[in-house]
Amino acid sequence: MFRYRRSVLAVEALSSYLLKADDASFHDQVYDALAEALTEGVFAPGQSVSLRTLASGLNVSPMPVREAVRRLIAEKALELQPSNKRLRVPSLSEDRLHQLAKARSWVEPELAAIAAIKATPELVDTLKEEDDTLMVALSKGDVEGYMKANHAFHFHIYKAAHADLFYDMARTLWLQTGPFMRVVFNKLGTVQLPRDHHQELIGAFAARDADTARTAMAEDIAEGMDLMVEAVRV
Known about the structure:
Blueprint: H1 6-18, H2 26-39, E1 48-49, H3 51-58, H4 62-74, E2 79-80, E3 87-88, H5 94-117, H6 121-140, H7 143-160, H8 164-188, H9 198-207, H10 210-233
Antiparallel strand pairs: 1-3, 2-3
Helix pairs in contact: 1-2, 1-3, 2-4, 2-8, 3-4, 5-7, 5-8, 5-9, 5-10, 6-7, 6-9, 7-8, 9-10
C-alpha cells in the first residue's frame, strides 16, 4: 500500500519539476512545473496550499507563482475557498468524477485514433519503453514512477496526434484528475488496479489501426475512472 505524505511530499517534489523546464519563459516554467506536479498527483484533493509554500518549494519569488496559480484556477485545477479565500486543490465528488470520465471518454480516444494514423516506429518504441517503466514501477509499489510513466505514455500519444484543441482539453482534464489518482493508489495499492490496455494501444499504433486505438483508449480510461469512483465510495 502506498503511503502519501501530503505536505512534505508536495514541497520536496516541486523543485524537481522546475528543473525539467526547457526554453520556455520563466513564468511558463513555473506554471509548467505546478501543472505537472498536479497532474502527477503531488497534491491531494482538498489539500490547502499557499503561494508562499509553492514559491518556497520551487525556490522562486511569489510573483511568477501568483500568475501560474491564476491560470490553474481558470483551468479548475486549483480553487479559492469562498469562506476564507484560501487556495486549495478541489475536492472531487462522485458526480464530478462522472463528468470528468465522460469528458475524457470523448476526447482521449479520438486523440488516440488520430495519432494511430500518424504513428511512427519511433513512437511505438517510445510507448514500449514507457510501458516497461510503468510495469517495473508497479512491481515495486513505486507510485512516483508509475504516475510519471503512465502520464508520459498517454501524452506521447496525445502529442503525436498534432491536434492542439483536443490536446489542450486532455491536458486540462488530467490536471483535474491527477490529484485523485494518488488517493486511489493510497487506498487500494497496486493489487486492485485494473488491467490497462497499453499493449492493445501499442499494437494498434504499430499497425496504424485507428479503430483499435480508439477502442483500447476508451476502455483504458473507463476502467481507470471507474476505480476512482469506487474509491470515492469507500
